[in-house]
Automatic annotation (TrEMBL):
It comes from Aquitalea palustris. InterPro entries: ATP_synth_asu-like_sf. Gene3D superfamilies: 2.40.30.20. This is Ubiquitin-activating enzyme E1 FCCH domain-containing protein. It comes from the Bacteria.
Length: 766
């Protein structure tokens, strides 16, 4: 008996074999049995992932490092390499250089603590916290001018000194003297922060109710600060109260029986925060114009939020006011060390055992008098930085290694968590997630590093109920990831580019490489980049711009001093025709810019030179690589010990890198031929119709060991030339094999694109 089957979407991604019997689930009808090195697109197709570009080796391959994203502006972003004792900076698939060497900033972090650093960015300041180290701020002052400092959270001490009070009492008859004491504070220009109080004046006696009697308060101006005014306070019945202010240059104030305002008092500060070992926070964030910290070793369930509108002012007053710092402790059922503070509509606190919601009771801005702290669920988060997508929080749970989403539910009037890896537990169980990041464009994908060395991806569009998992391997163990926004050379729009640290063993030596996932955009097959740790002779170069000099490293550029050529820079403002100022060697030259500036990135030369070999591939020495020459793959070959690959014939655009094997397998087929949906019948797929888009080099078969090339050459393709990329329906007669599943396998091993939109099958049923 013959029948047909049709897979029209793969939007559910890879599904665990344990769910093959759940034919009642809609997602089982749109899933895949295997999705390896392929990306599920939000609208249903599946495409092979782009390759990665080699950026550099980390400073010391003997020790792991991690990556932290930094965004200075919409056009200037960095992937910061954090290692024991140093920061390095990478952007546009290049490394920030200074004087011919990678630019570095020193730090004091030990190797064992690198993975547990948490961070938050505001403008050009990156706040770094770890429970074993004081809070640190990494500041960008210029392209090659970064500083790492420890901010002070002590109350400002630039108060007036020598405060005294004197009595003027021309009328003493029938008087009823009262003791008075005063203090003065400084309000600083700019941030308007108020200092601690000056010394308290010696008590004086006077009856200010009598006409003409008054007290004069005097002080000495503070040094090292520019005040905008001075606030004066009077002590009455044990409470301070505000009685007025004096100008920035004034040194005296007269109290002629001013009634103190006891609702405004001098600032007070607690001790025990960021002042000693055990008092350093583990979590940091921003919420409602406050910088928030939580989870010290001595107070693991405590939270501190700075005074509204300030970065480091942790003062309060008595009575409290809305702008005061906020400090509280979670009253939890079990030990719940705060690991993350996540700002969404409310402030979400993720601890080792539960999730909390911090909000105001009246819907206004949060402060001490309207604080509400409520548990939302009892799951627990591990130490990996959570991701915010829209108003949803994605986090890795503390136990079990799964990924969960946390979003507000109006029916429950609370934040609910959901296991979004429930359809693919085989990718997570008995492993842990080590790092995560999220790419928002061109496709919304959560990237998660697993302890097994694989990189897991989830195409995530919650409003369309798309949460499709796929897995990726890179010929080594992925150890760290981050996403930053960049505009890849040759494209017209910005993308979120994925940076990775991959640990590979090459010729018996451990090497850790920083690599950037290439854009999947390509105009022609020669633009395709589907190799890992790869490079290309057409966009091979890097440049360093300082002043008017642009130093370019372009392997085998073939130019001489005085030659003119068009250069395409990743900084598009620099692209144009240049006359070569000087040539250092066959790989390095210097151009002169008409403008003064600085920066680094990638550069290509047009027209490209014909080359018969590609050199400079030292990081791939001794490895077997795939090669694409002007859009046509040539047989795999080994890179020489000197980092050279020799081609079979000259080409202008050559892409070289480690092979990528993309594998897609459909789920077992269910057929409406009996009440068992055909599960008891053996099936033989005799022919497949693949609907493809801009694809070449696909193999199809009943399993990955029995594959048939999907021939796509047409009469329009000249003999000896690479066939054009195919779009449309491609019929493939495959090797017959009787099996109960009736699934087919699709594989791509060439460095060429593949996008599969649907599959139709001709099936014989026993």
């Amino acid at each position: 008996m013959g029948t047909k089957a049709f897979d029209r979407s793969f939007a559910a991604g890879e599904i665990t074999p344990e769910m093959y019997g759940r034919l009642d689930l809609t997602k089982e009808q749109t899933g895949l049995a295997t999705c390896r090195n392929a990306i599920v697109l939000p609208h249903g197709p599946v495409a092979n992932r782009p390759g990665t570009e080699f950026v550099s080796e980390i400073k010391s391959s003997a020790n792991p490092a991690r990556l932290i994203p930094f965004t200075y502006s919409i056009t200037q972003t960095m992937a910061i390499e954090v290692g024991a004792g140093y920061f390095r900076f990478h952007s546009q698939a290049g490394t920030l250089m200074n004087g011919g060497v990678p630019y570095e900033v020193a730090n004091s972090y030990a190797q064992a603590d690198i993975a547990n650093i948490h961070y938050v960015q505001s403008a050009d300041v990156l706040t770094l916290v770890h429970p074993n180290y004081p809070i640190a701020e990494l500041r960008r002052l210029g392209a090659t001018n970064w500083t790492l400092t420890n901010p002070s959270f002590a109350i400002p001490t630039y108060c007036p000194t020598g405060a005294t009070a004197t009595v003027t009492s021309p009328h003493t008859s029938s008087w009823n003297p009262v003791n008075y004491q005063y203090c003065v504070t400084t309000v600083q220009t700019g941030d308007l922060q108020e200092s601690i109080a000056s010394n308290v004046t010696t008590a004086i006696s006077n009856d200010l109710t009598l006409l003409g009697n008054y007290n004069t308060i005097t002080w000495t101006l503070p040094t090292g600060v520019t005040p905008i005014r001075f606030n004066v306070y009077k002590l009455v019945n044990g409470l301070w109260g505000y009685i007025g202010q004096a100008a920035a240059t004034a040194t005296s104030f007269i109290d002629n029986n001013i009634t103190p305002n006891a609702s405004q008092t001098p600032p007070i500060m607690d001790s025990g925060f960021n002042d000693a070992v055990g008092n350093y926070p583990a979590a940091v964030s921003y919420y409602q114009q406050r910088r928030c910290f939580g989870g010290t070793n001595n107070a693991p369930q405590n939270v501190w939020m700075t005074m509204s509108g300030t970065e480091s002012n942790l003062t309060y007053t008595l009575p409290v006011t809305a702008s005061n710092r906020v400090a509280f402790r979670i009253a939890a059922r079990e030990a719940s060390a705060i690991r993350h503070l996540v700002p969404v509509a409310n402030l979400i606190m993720l601890t080792a055992s539960c999730e909390w919601r911090v909000s105001s009771t009246d819907g206004s801005a949060l402060w001490a008098s309207n604080l509400s702290v409520q548990p939302q669920s009892y799951i627990g988060a591990n130490n990996v930085t959570p991701i915010v997508v829209g108003n949803t929080v994605l986090f890795s749970q503390a136990r079990g290694g799964r990924i969960r989403e946390m979003a507000y539910n109006w029916q429950a009037q609370a934040y609910l968590t959901n296991d979004i890896s429930v359809l693919a537990p085989h990718l997570f169980d008995y492993n842990q997630v080590l790092d995560m990041c999220f790419s928002r464009a061109p496709y919304p994908i959560l990237w998660a590093v697993s302890t097994n060395g694989n990189l897991l991806g989830m195409t995530y569009v919650p409003e369309q109920q798309v949460a499709a998992w796929h897995r990726h391997d890179f010929g080594g163990n992925v150890e760290a990831v981050c996403c930053i926004t960049e505009q890849p050379a040759g494209t017209l729009a910005s993308e979120d580019m994925l940076y990775l640290i991959v640990n590979r063993v090459i010729n018996g030596v451990t090497r850790r490489f920083i690599e950037r996932m290439h854009t999947r955009y390509f105009n022609t097959p020669s633009d395709a980049f589907f190799v890992d740790s790869g490079a290309t002779n057409f966009l091979p170069g890097t440049f360093s711009w300082s002043g008017t000099a642009i130093s370019c490293n372009i392997p085998s550029h073939g130019l001489s001093t005085g030659n003119s050529a068009y250069f395409t820079f990743s900084n598009t403002a620099l692209s144009g025709t240049y006359t070569v100022t000087s040539v250092t060697d066959t790989n390095n030259l210097v151009l002169t810019s008409t403008t003064v500036g600085q920066g680094s990135g990638t550069v290509s030369q047009t027209p490209a030179q014909y080359v018969s070999q590609v050199s400079g591939l030292t990081w791939l020495a001794g490895l077997t690589v795939n090669v694409l020459v002007d859009g046509a793959p040539i047989p795999a070959r080994q890179v020489s010990s000197g980092g050279v690959v020799t081609l079979d014939y000259p080409g202008t655009k050559v892409v070289v890198g480690l092979p990528i094997t993309t594998q897609v397998q459909t789920l077992p087929i269910s057929l409406q031929v009996d009440t068992a949906m055909g599960q008891t019948l053996e099936k033989n797929v005799t022919q497949a119709w693949l609907r493809l888009y801009r694809t070449s080099g696909v193999y199809v078969g009943p399993d990955f060991n029995t594959l048939t090339l999907a021939t796509q050459r047409s009469f329009q393709d000249l003999p000896g030339n690479q066939p054009a990329l195919f779009s449309g329906v491609l019929p493939v007669v495959i090797t017959p094999a009787w099996q109960f599943d009736g699934a087919i396998c699709i594989q791509q091993t060439d460095p060429l694109p593949m996008t599969l939109t649907s599959v139709a099958l001709d099936i014989s049923v026993s």
